[in-house]
Amino acid sequence: MEFVFVPLFVTMFPVLIVWIMLRYRSQQAQARYQTLLQLADKGVELPLQLLVEPQVAYCERRRALVLIGGGLGLMAMFLALPGQLDNGHNVSSLWGLGLLPLMTGLGYLASWWLNQRGGTRG
User: Fold this and answer.
1) Rounded to the nearest 5°, which phi and psi values hold at 7?
2) Is the pLDDT of residue 89 over 90?
3) Which percentage of the chain shows pLDDT scores above 70?
4) Are 108 and 67 in contact (CB under 8 A)?
5) Which of 17, 38, 56, 98 could pair covalently with 71 via S-S, beta carbons 3.0-4.6 A apart?
């Protein structure tokens, strides 16, 4: 019976984290809009800065560094793990799974760099 619950838990845990994060952001946005509506009901003139959605600066760079670090960590973990799989292959042969977050992070880093370069010219 545990052979069903462990994969189910491992699969549902990231989904739960994403759901909690999205719910938190939704509640934040609702609270912000509620405050804006209360200010508008009182007749306060709303500045344009309050009406624009806030954006995080350097989001691509931070995301890139986290993904690159995660990918390198995943690769190092698989290379350091002893043991063998059921088919006789070593666990260290799974190091390539870290390439996906590593390459995604490099893509974000390149996008951030190109945006910075384009922004300084124009």
Assistant:
1) -65, -35
2) no
3) 89
4) yes
5) 98
